[in-house]
């Protein structure tokens, strides 16, 4: 029986038999194609019996004959309408039938159902109809996840509107549909944010908080249309917020995400939404900095818009495929059932193109059943293959012409590179040829060194393994723990040299070829710490030469080299005809004389240009800016410390340690022996020595983090000290949810007092001190009128915080006596309070007063803190708008440095600053220290850094301290290695200059006798001895 005959007297039980007939005869012969509108009409009938029978038939067709989907889907609208029928039986049957159509449709054809579903979502429709339509949308999450992801740009706006509905059933169904949609976005970077995005859509008040979290997301994966579809509504909300900070943050996220859009077509649907909102903000935001950030985002989107307009767009274009199918099957005038099948096939094929399902087997599997009722299998498959081939042609993007070169290809890969939270390169290509020399160019922080380091560490996806292509990174930085090794041992212990099985003789031979000879300036058996920067670079090159590299990666290979050595490096690089070189350099002559190609990092892509630097500059004149070389491209500025009450000379000691010995509780042997040092405003001290020599321990004693067992540590009561520890992050570990700006304002919120300084061990009372404080102490009082002296025993309960200077120019501190409930306004002298156990409390009062003094110059405002952070190299983008958890290691250290410097300290103490700052930041730090009027003490292994800044050196060796007056003693080993009698000027911390001889000459017995006679005569006549004589007199017990 035909479908037409069945439909005339359709009953509730006829569904299975109708489906069986269609399955047996096909949609055309059975009459379903011709009568599907009649079936849809019955399904929408108000008569309960008729509607139930038709809906049962639709459900049976959808579940039993999925290949008839091209026709059956036309009943979906009727099923959705019946969701609001008066009869519960009908609404249940309608729901079952609609969900059956959605569940059994070919997943690639689900986009064909969307117009029908969307037509039932407007508010004018009955809420039951809308609710069922939303349930249908949610069901695609399980049956067609990839295809739903592809359709999100259309789905999200429709569902979002329903999430704001007043009807709770609609709101609930829309939220569930959105939750399913969020599961299919396929972007791991924002997977963890899905629930929060959902919350932000329904609760606008949450938008600013969620924007903060979004700003901290590191986007590494390519951003495609599903991710954009989810994030764009949130960003639009952010752009329309009242708070400038939130609008600014939205602009930043838009700017960052848009850089990771590989296919501009992905962004096309969203540009008309985002661009107008951004342009409005760019012209209306009053804050010039936020306006500037927004303008950058507008510029970036316009760039993307330009690319999208140029791109060939076949996405979702059903019309092109419809024409191809009609042509392939020679059915240009097809109508009825065949027209339905062609339209259905076009939807499937377009979706497969969008998702890059282009294999012939995939097309045959998904499309052959659609045409099975009209053409035999062979013709069907042939026609489908013709259309697939045409579709592939539509998708071809013209490739850039590959360079015609006979050289062997060492690498041809595509990769993404990130550092911390910053994307440096995204989905970019790199092709390297053997024997070619590549100059790597890019702006500050574009990722040049990171790229080379990642290549060397096998971290670049698709780059040949270092076992196949031997890659060596040449850098002159010597780790502190290796600085004591001889030049030969330094090269020999390298893991890669060990793996090659090189002998020490081979190492010695290679070093001699670059100038390391026993009678030369740099001796192979001397420690690497004695080498100047230039010799360190030659040592690094020698080590690389031993490894017989295929690819040589060089970071500033001519740094620290003189003209002769620069010429040597150029000649060496050019002699490597079979080795590929990549070099980062600010030396334009090197890039001109050695490079065959230039690699430029721009807009997160790596672009290759043939020719040397001059050729490249002709194509890109803007590249000249890379070589306007200043000593440091970054500039740091430290706040000046200002005057100290009672200190008129820059040479006057502000901190002292006198004969301090310290032993850690777990050790028997002291870590430090009899240390005496002092620091003044004019101090520039480098503290050097091997790892474990006790440098950091000494500094901790000096700043009061620990206390010595014997000896005294003193700090001027009005001096402010900034201390950046070796493990600097401990300062901020419990504040990672704050922005750097918020952290500094929290830390100094209490009238400028530094909350961090009050937790030091040296500020906690010992049991002995607490006992003294509770012991009554005899205090003398003088009656001003009668002059009568009375003595009373009292206990001080606390120091209130006041301080004044008495007639003897000593400090007196305001106190409260035990038992008193009000401030007495009474003051006690420093000496008295010290005897009563209040020494540390007085220091705390001194510190608070000193810290408050630093606040008067600069109020603790967001703007001031933002500027202060910028002064130490942390851009306001990260300083005010990023939480610290989202910052990289180097950025966090800048936060710690800025926080320490906020209260304008008089002394800055840095423990290993060169560990965590890059070359630019180091240069900027050096510049800031040079112009800083306070004292500086730094522990460092970086000879170049300390020799530039520090005329005084503290050399720590196994807990014993030797003071040298000239940090260049390390450098002079390079030029005066054979001159053991070198003479240096010693400038101590107080600024006194004296001459110190090198190694002492051993006196003969005759000379010794003469010296004894001379000293005795001087002592008898009351004359002063010079330092050498005094030392000799003490040694021989003459005084």
Task: Describe the 3D structure.
- The chain has 1039 residues and is α/β, with parallel strands linked by helices.
- Helix content is 47%, strand content 15%.
- The chain is built from 43 helices and 24 strands.
- A six-stranded mixed β-sheet has the order 4-5-6-3-7-8, sandwiched between helices. Strands 13-19-20-11-21-22 form a six-stranded mixed β-sheet, sandwiched between helices. The protein has a three-stranded antiparallel β-sheet with strand order 10-9-12, with helices on one face.
- A hairpin with a 2-residue loop joins strand 21 and strand 22.
- Helix 4 runs parallel beside helix 7.
- The radius of gyration is 40 Å and the shape is elongated.
- The N and C termini lie far apart (132 Å).
Q: What characteristics describe this protein?
A:
alpha/beta, elongated, 1039 residues, 24 strands, 15% strand, six-stranded mixed β-sheet, 43 helices
SSE blueprint:
Layout: H1 3-8, H2 15-29, H3 32-43, H4 48-64, H5 69-72, H6 76-81, H7 88-104, H8 114-118, H9 127-143, H10 145-163, H11 168-182, H12 194-202, H13 207-215, H14 225-239, H15 244-259, H16 264-267, H17 271-284, H18 288-310, H19 318-328, H20 336-354, H21 360-371, H22 377-395, E1 409-419, E2 422-433, E3 437-441, H23 448-456, E4 471-474, H24 487-492, H25 495-500, H26 504-513, H27 533-546, E5 551-555, H28 563-575, E6 580-584, H29 588-594, E7 597-602, E8 605-610, H30 613-619, E9 653-662, E10 672-680, E11 684-689, H31 695-703, E12 710-715, E13 721-724, H32 740-747, H33 767-774, E14 777-782, E15 789-794, E16 796-805, E17 811-817, E18 826-829, H34 830-835, H35 839-855, H36 862-871, H37 876-881, H38 889-901, E19 907-911, H39 919-930, E20 935-939, H40 943-949, E21 952-957, E22 960-964, H41 969-975, E23 984-987, E24 993-996, H42 1005-1020, H43 1027-1035
Parallel strand pairs: 3-6, 3-7, 4-5, 5-6, 11-20, 11-21, 13-19, 19-20
Antiparallel strand pairs: 1-2, 7-8, 9-10, 9-12, 14-15, 16-17, 17-18, 21-22, 23-24
Helix pairs in contact: 2-4, 3-4, 4-7, 7-9, 9-10, 9-11, 10-11, 10-14, 11-12, 13-15, 14-15, 14-17, 15-18, 17-18, 19-20, 19-22, 20-21, 21-22, 26-27, 32-36, 32-38
């Amino acid at each position: 029986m035909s479908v037409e005959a069945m439909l005339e007297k359709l009953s509730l039980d006829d569904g299975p038999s109708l489906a069986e007939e269609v399955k047996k005869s096909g949609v055309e012969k059975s009459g379903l194609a011709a009568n599907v509108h009649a079936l849809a009409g019955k399904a929408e009938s108000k008569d309960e019996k008729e509607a139930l029978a038709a809906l049962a038939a639709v459900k049976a067709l959808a579940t039993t004959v999925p290949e008839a989907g091209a026709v059956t889907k036309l009943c979906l609208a009727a099923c959705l309408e019946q969701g609001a029928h008066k009869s519960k039986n009908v609404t249940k049957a309608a729901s079952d039938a609609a969900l059956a159509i959605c569940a059994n449709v070919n997943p690639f054809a689900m986009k064909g159902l969307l117009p029908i579903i969307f037509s039932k979502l407007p508010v004018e429709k009955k809420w039951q109809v809308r609710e069922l339509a939303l349930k249908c949308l949610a069901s695609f999450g399980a049956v067609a996840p990839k295809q739903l992801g592809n359709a999100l740009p259309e789905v999200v706006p429709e569902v979002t509107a329903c999430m704001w509905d007043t009807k709770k059933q609609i709101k609930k169904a829309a939220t569930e549909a959105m939750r399913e949609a969020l599961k299919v976005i396929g972007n791991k970077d924002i997977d963890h944010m899905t629930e929060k995005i959902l919350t932000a859509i329904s609760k606008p008040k949450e938008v600013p908080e969620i924007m903060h979290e979004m700003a901290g997301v590191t986007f590494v994966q390519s951003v495609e249309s599903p991710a954009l579809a989810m994030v764009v509504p949130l960003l639009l909300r952010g752009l329309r917020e009242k708070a400038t900070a939130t609008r600014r943050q939205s602009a930043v996220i838009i700017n960052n995400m848009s850089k990771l859009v590989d296919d501009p077509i992905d962004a096309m649907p969203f540009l008309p939404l985002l661009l107008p909102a951004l342009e409005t903000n760019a012209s209306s935001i009053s804050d010039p900095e936020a306006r500037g950030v927004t303008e950058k985002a507008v510029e970036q989107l316009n760039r993307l818009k330009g690319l999208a307009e140029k791109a060939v767009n076949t996405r979702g274009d059903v019309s092109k495929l419809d024409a191809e199918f009609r042509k392939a099957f020679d059915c240009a005038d097809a109508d009825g059932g065949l027209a339905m099948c062609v339209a259905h096939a076009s939807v499937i094929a377009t979706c497969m193109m969008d998702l890059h399902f282009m294999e012939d087997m995939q097309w045959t599997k998904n499309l052959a059943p659609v045409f099975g009722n009209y053409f035999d299998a062979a013709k069907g498959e042939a026609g489908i293959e013709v259309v697939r081939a045409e579709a592939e042609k539509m998708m071809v993007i013209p490739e850039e012409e590959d360079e015609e070169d006979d050289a062997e290809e060492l690498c041809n890969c595509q990769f993404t590179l990130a550092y911390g939270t910053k994307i440096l390169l995204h989905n970019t290509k790199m092709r390297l040829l053997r024997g070619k020399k590549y100059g790597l160019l890019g702006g500050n922080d574009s990722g040049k060194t990171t790229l080379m380091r990642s290549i060397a560490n096998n971290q670049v996806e698709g780059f040949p393994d270092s076992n196949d292509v031997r890659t060596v990174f040449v850098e002159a930085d010597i780790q502190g723990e290796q600085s004591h090794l001889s030049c030969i041992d330094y090269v020999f212990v390298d893991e890669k040299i060990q793996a090659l099985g090189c002998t020490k003789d081979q190492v010695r031979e290679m070093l001699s070829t670059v100038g390391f000879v026993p009678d030369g300036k740099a001796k192979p058996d001397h420690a690497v710490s004695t080498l100047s920067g230039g010799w360190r670079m030659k040592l690094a090159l020698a080590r690389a030469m031993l490894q017989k590299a295929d690819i040589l990666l060089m970071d500033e290979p001519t740094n620290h080299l003189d003209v002769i050595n620069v010429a040597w490096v150029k000649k060496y690089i050019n002699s490597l005809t079979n080795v590929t070189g990549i070099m980062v350099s600010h030396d334009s002559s090197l890039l001109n004389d050695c490079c065959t190609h230039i690699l430029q990092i721009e807009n997160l892509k790596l672009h290759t240009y043939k020719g040397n630097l001059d050729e490249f500059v002709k194509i890109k004149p803007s590249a000249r800016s890379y070589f306007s070389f200043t000593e440091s491209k970054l500039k740091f500025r430290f706040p000046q410390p200002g005057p100290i009450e009672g200190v008129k000379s820059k040479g006057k000691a502000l901190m002292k340690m006198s004969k301090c010995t310290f032993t850690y509780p777990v050790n028997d042997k002291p870590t430090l022996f009899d240390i005496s040092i002092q620091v003044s405003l004019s101090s520039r001290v480098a503290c050097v020595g091997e790892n474990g020599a006790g440098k950091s321990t000494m500094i901790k004693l000096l700043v009061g983090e620990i206390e010595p067992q014997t000896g005294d540590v003193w700090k001027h009561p009005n001096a402010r000290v900034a201390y950046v520890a070796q493990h600097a992050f401990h300062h901020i570990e419990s504040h990672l949810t704050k922005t750097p700006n918020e952290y500094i304002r929290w830390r100094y919120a209490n009238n400028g007092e530094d909350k961090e300084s009050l937790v030091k061990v040296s500020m906690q009372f010992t049991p002995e001190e607490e006992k003294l404080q509770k012991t009554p102490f005899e205090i003398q009082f003088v009656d001003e009128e009668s002059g009568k002296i009375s003595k009373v025993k009292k206990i001080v309960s606390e120091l209130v915080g006041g301080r004044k200077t008495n007639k003897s120019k000593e400090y007196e501190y305001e106190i409260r006596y035990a038992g008193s409930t009000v401030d007495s306004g009474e003051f006690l002298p420093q000496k008295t309070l010290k005897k009563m156990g209040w020494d540390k409390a007085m220091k705390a009062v001194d510190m608070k007063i000193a810290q408050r003094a630093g606040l008067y110059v600069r109020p603790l405002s967001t703007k001031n803190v933002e500027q202060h952070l910028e002064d130490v190299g942390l851009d306001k983008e990260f300083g005010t708008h990023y939480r610290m958890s989202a910052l990289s290691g180097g950025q966090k250290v800048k936060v710690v440095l800025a926080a320490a410097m906020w209260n304008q300290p008089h002394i800055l103490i840095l423990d290993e600053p060169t560990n965590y700052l890059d070359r630019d930041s180091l240069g900027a730090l050096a510049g800031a220290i040079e112009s800083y009027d306070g004292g500086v003490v730094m522990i460092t292994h970086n000879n170049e850094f300390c020799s530039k800044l520090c005329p005084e050196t503290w050399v720590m060796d196994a807990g014993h301290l030797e003071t040298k007056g000239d940090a260049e003693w390390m450098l002079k080993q390079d030029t005066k290695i054979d001159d053991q009698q070198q003479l240096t000027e010693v400038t101590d911390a107080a600024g006194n200059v004296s001459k110190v001889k090198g190694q002492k000459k051993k006196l003969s017995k005759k000379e010794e006798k003469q010296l004894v006679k001379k000293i005795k005569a001087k002592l008898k006549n009351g004359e002063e001895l010079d330092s050498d004589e005094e030392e000799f007199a003490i040694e021989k017990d003459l005084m």
